[in-house]
Amino acid sequence: MNYLLHILVIICIYLVLGLSLNLIVGYTGLLSLSHAAFYGIGAYIGTLLMMNLGLGFLPSLALAVIGAMLLSLTISIPSLRLKGDYFMLATLGFQIIVFAVLYNWVGLTRGPFGIPGIPRPSLFGFQLRTVGHYLGFSVAVAAICLGLLFLITHSPFGRVLKAIREDEMAAAALGKDTPRLKVVAFSIAAGFAAVSGVLFATYMRYIDPTSFTLMESIFILSVIVIGGTGNVSGPIAGTILLIVLPEALRFLRIPDAIAANMRQVIYGLAIILIMRYRPQGLLGEYRFE
Amino acid sequence: MLPQLIANGLVMGCSYALVALGFALIYNTTRTFHFAHGGVYVLSAYLLYTFRNLWGIPLVPAAILTLLLIAFLGVAIDEVLYRPLVKRGSSQPIQMLSSLGLYIVIINLIAMFYGNETKMLSPGVQPTYTVGHIILARTQIVTAVTFVVLFVSLLFLLRKSRMGKTIRALRDDPELVSASGINARFFRWSVFALGSVLAGVAAILAGLDVGIDPNIGMTALLSGAVAVIIGGVGVFEGAALGGIALGLLQSLAIWQTSARWQDMVTFVVLIVFLLFRPQGLFGIRRRAEEMAG
Prior knowledge:
With 289 residues, chain A is an all-alpha fold. Chain A has 12 helices and 4 strands. The longest helix of chain A is centred in the first third of the chain and has 27 residues, at 2-28. Chain B has 293 residues and is mainly alpha-helical. Chain A binds chain B through residues 31, 75, 78-79, 81-86, 88-90, 92-94, 96-97, 99-101, 103-104, 214, 218, 222, 225, 257-258, 261-262, 264-265, 267-272, 275-276, 279, 288-289, and chain B through 33, 81, 84-85, 90-94, 96-98, 100-105, 108-109, 111-112, 115, 218, 222, 225-226, 229, 260-261, 263-264, 266-268, 270-271, 274-275, 278, 288-289, 291-293.
């Protein structure tokens, strides 16, 4: 039973990650490989504030989100004038730099040893103890995030982003400040990734840099590429599929040693097939054209 | 200390330069961000390991066999993965994501068959040579010599031969090449075969020097791609010089800080270049909007 609840918590975390990355990939049409970096930045800022400064859960969460949004500016302002593979390379570089800092700045992050014993949140006097409690909490957080993202993508702001994706020149000609809008979208996405990071840290109660690698960024990107981007249902479908399907592999009695690699092979093949036959993903609407 | 680090950096740079030349050949010609190049790199190392260490074939025939297979693999990747996409007129992100998918498939298949632990291609201590204050292992010397020979022959091929001219034409306008009655497909194959062999050579040499594991491909690919950006996209010599510059820089970074910050140095350099000199050291200045091609 706890196993099932665990998977549901993980789905909530990845729903927020996938839908926020969708804001960059599906709405502005830029491929970003730095989402795990913001996920990690959120997890570390939140954890360090709670454990070293003794701040409560909500102030730590708020500061983690603000921190990730500000740090996202360091990469988005300079690189948003780049396009295509140059933009992707810049975000990839950012991802690797963030990982190097988390791994090597041992004085602050304890580096490869990780940070154990992260406290579970307690809200309005109620202490979350069991996995069940935590599931209820993460469903609530995910629902709030999804609601906010839905409002953002369906607001005039979201429609301008779509216009930029389809024809940036035309959007600019209509007086839209396209670089600024892209920077804002990028930092909103980073902020939501930080929410996922804080959820992950307080759920697992232990973090180390290996959860926030380039491979993790690639995984989050493949979730939404396979599910589809540019709307809300695509990333939801991708998250559920890519989290639940590999769990089914456990029941096929595949040895643990190769199960992880097998899962990755399936992701890789899925990306290739989707790109070939259905570039908009399973339920998405943006076709990367 | 410093001369030794410079020598090590130059040799490391030669290895990066080989990967970068292969990547540049494919990237400059086809405009495909060839992530699978990293997969080709890892697979070369593991093929050599299989032929030499598991089946007992001597090094030189094993290496030749590996490179032949890798050349075919390069062509197969183009035919099976990219060609249908190019024919359909798919965008750059689609090709890049497909390539990334293939990279993931290749390295995880390798990990499934061979395991994740480091394998040694040449166990034992290598013979070393001392020149003044510098000590170099035999593989390091072979790497430097191989790079110089391959680089000079490639330059000759691309600058002086008809093939080089066609490859440059293919970059500018593939349809016009076909329309002129030239078999564009054959030249595309040559580009992929040659590019993959360059990665294969680098992988074999690096594998003989320090051993192999399934993750060496991403590091090699990224160093190669960064070298191409430093040198300047579209400039073939730039890729080689960019690779050597990167090797030197990483080596000097060890001198000033520690080996742990090597990756960081690579990517700080990348971001600085993307921001302030996106055309690279030797590239032709173009507007940022044009860079995506």
